[in-house]
Amino acid sequence: MDLPPITNGFELVYKKPQTLTETPMHYCPGCGHGVVHRVLMEVIEEMGIQDRTIGVAPVGCSVFAYDYMNVDMQEAAHGRASAVATGIKRVLPDRFVYSYQGDGDLAAIGTAETIHTVNRGENILMVFINNGIYGMTGGQMAPTSILGMKTTTSPFGRDSKLAGHPLKITNLIAQLPGAFYVTRHAVHTANAVRKLKKAIHSSFEYQLLNKGTCFIEVLSNCPSGWKMTPAESNKWLEENMFPIYPLGDLKTPSQTMN
Amino acid sequence: MPTHKEKSEVLLMKGNEALAEAAFRAGLQAYFGYPITPQSEVIEYLMAEQPKHDCVVLQAESEVAAINMIFGASGAGARVMTSSSGPGISLMQEGISYMAASQLPCLIVNVQRGGPGLGTIQPSQGDYFQATKGGGHGDYRLIVLAPASVQEMADFVFDGFRLAEKYRNPAMILTDGALGQMMEKLEMPPKGSLPYPETPWATTGKRKDRKRNVVTSLFMQPEKMEEVNLHLQEKYRLIEETEVRYEEIDVDDADVLLVAFGLVARICEKAMHLAREKGLRVGLLRPITLFPYPSKRLAELSSKVGSVLTVEMNAGQMLEDVRLAVEGRCPVHFKGRMGGMIPSPEEVLEAIEAIPAKLHVELQR
Ligand SMILES: Cc1ncc(C[n+]2csc(CCOP(=O)(O)OP(=O)(O)O)c2C)c(N)n1
Ligand code: SF4
Ligand SMILES: [Mg+2]
């Protein structure tokens, strides 16, 4: 017998999307990766595009994204997710294709692929998780680490003379004619998560237009790498990352169409 | 420009262009590559002819990007090819290792130039080790085909795709700048003669009636990783049992057995005739597959001949496989040129004549 969706007089307001698998996530408590996975998969379920979507996982903490995301997926080499996504989209142009990458993956080792994928205007969604650190390998400095930030490879704080400045790659991306929609979000509050979800939804709709790359940066936390509690990390994110990486749209389709 | 008829047709073409045209006829669905001499004609030809075909042709920003685009397109079930030379093939090695581990078919063409380093654009066989021993990290092999003519530049595209798809493993055509650049008459096979395989593993979108498909090379549990390795090794053994190809000429009465692949085998054939004119009994074994290597046949022959002379355009790379096969049954000699230098038939003849002892002893008898 089918159970009715509303039971015991309570309205069902939240459930796990079937686009997420049953595999328990390996992320540290409070980590933003799991939240982004979830909203991404919620959108895919709500849009009914699970059977037409192919994702590309990076090398980074989210390397196992394909264990959690219940869509066809490929696991790319470190930094190359957007090249892999290009290969998929070019041979399957009627599918929805997205890549999911960390800051080391997308903005250090994969910078060339990132820039050129967007410059070609590949019709894919690129999700970029900026947590300012290399979470997976144990908390080394990332291209996006902010000045003064202590990591295992910047033990005295990131010094611009030695290691350059935090790379605002999303701002660079927004300059490229191939970029259709470029936006920066966060997942530190419920409201921020809702906004991110909207941006993901729009991006998949834009993909149908064949107008260029949608690029979403998500400012995220890394409680383990930052050596903070989840609550502290969200506060630190707001106070230290937001001023350098302000939230909001960097390029919207209306600007692109002009 | 050639048209695409149902029958094969006789054409006069450059090696690189013959290879590119053959790729279309073999049902290529996506090519990604980056220009490098001496093989840029491949992407140039594909770009120019692409409008006549249902095929993606894209110039990537680097060979790193190209091999990863190949990865994605192959993982999505397409018949894919890339091509490059020395430095570019080196850049692809991480991606090739990932493809071997993820069991993705693809055809990689290395039109070799002289190295190491930026080297020279002249022909070489200096990438034999890289091609046949893996090249990237980890225990894996490529299926390696070595053409010796423009005809084989075209034919081996078909064989390369067929083998890559049969074993879900990257295949490589290991050729060189001379074969890429020279023009020869060839019989171009017709389009549509190579059927597409089933690819139920490909990431094409998770239909309701199946589980999601995942293309990955990551297996964190060592037990699982070893299992994957054992499977790969089993596959390579099967390839060694089934797919060895070689050509032999006048080996039956040979005192000296020449062993050479690709362009050098043609030079050796000429040297062999020069030697025979002088009354020297010389034969030739030309490995066509470099992996799997015709070790068994070479072992058999090595117990019949007086000595083996390996000729290569490198410092002696295939020589190691020759020695492993011969296992001391007869002396193994080597003649090599490097850095883009091509040995002449006369040079090879000299090397044959310089072989002492056994040959001459037998001749005097
Ligand atoms: C070619 C190569 N170099 C280095 C590594 C090691 N490595 C794995 S993940 C990683 C950094 C990941 O950081 P990021 O992309 O920011 O992802 P996060 O873990 O923070 O989500 C590095 C350096 C690798 N796997 N491959
Ligand atoms: S190390 Fe950081 S990024 Fe990785 S799972 Fe833990 S908190 Fe998340
Ligand atoms: Mg990171």
Number of helices of chain B: 14
Tally of discrete structural domains of chain B? 2
Low-confidence stretches of chain B: 359-365
Helix content of chain B: 40-55%
Largest sheet of chain B: 7 strands, mixed
Give me the side-by-side strand order of the main sheet of chain B: 3-2-4-5-7-6-13
C-alpha termini separation of chain A: 55 Å
What is the domain total for the residues of chain A? 1
Largest interface: A-B, 32 and 40 residues
Major sheet characteristics of chain A: 7 strands, mixed
CATH architecture of chain A: 3-Layer(aba) Sandwich
Q: Do you know the CATH architecture of the largest domain in chain B?
A: 3-Layer(aba) Sandwich
Question: What is the structure about, briefly put?
Answer:
The complex is a heterodimer of chains A (258) and B (365). Chain A contains eleven helices and nine strands.
Q: What would you note in describing this structure?
A:
The complex is a heterodimer of chains A (258) and B (365). In chain A, strands 2-1-3-4-8-7-9 form a 7-stranded mixed sheet, sandwiched between helices. In chain A, strands 5-6 form a two-stranded antiparallel sheet. Chain A is of the alpha/beta class and 258 residues long. In chain A, α1 crosses α8 and α4 (103-109) packs across α5 (111-119). Chain A is built from 11 helices and 9 strands. Chain A has a single domain, classed as 3-Layer(aba) Sandwich (Rossmann fold). Chain B folds into 2 domains: 4-200 and 212-242, Rossmann fold, CATH 3.40.50; 247-364, Rossmann fold (3-Layer(aba) Sandwich). Chain B contains 14 helices and 15 strands. In chain B, the strands form 3 sheets. In chain B, strands 3-2-4-5-7-6-13 form a 7-stranded mixed sheet, with helices on both faces. In chain B, strands 10-12-11-14-15 form a 5-stranded mixed sheet, with helices on both faces. The A-B interface holds A 50-54, 56-57, 63-64, 66, 70-77, 80, 83-88, 90-92, 95, 112-113, 116 and B 29-30, 32, 56, 58, 60-62, 64-66, 68-78, 80, 94-95, 98, 102, 203-208, 212-218. β2 of chain A pairs parallel with β9 (214-215) of chain B, so a sheet runs across the interface. The structure holds thiamine diphosphate, iron/sulfur cluster and magnesium ion (MG). Iron/sulfur cluster is lined by residues 27-28, 31, 33, 61, 131, 135-136, 222-225 of chain A.
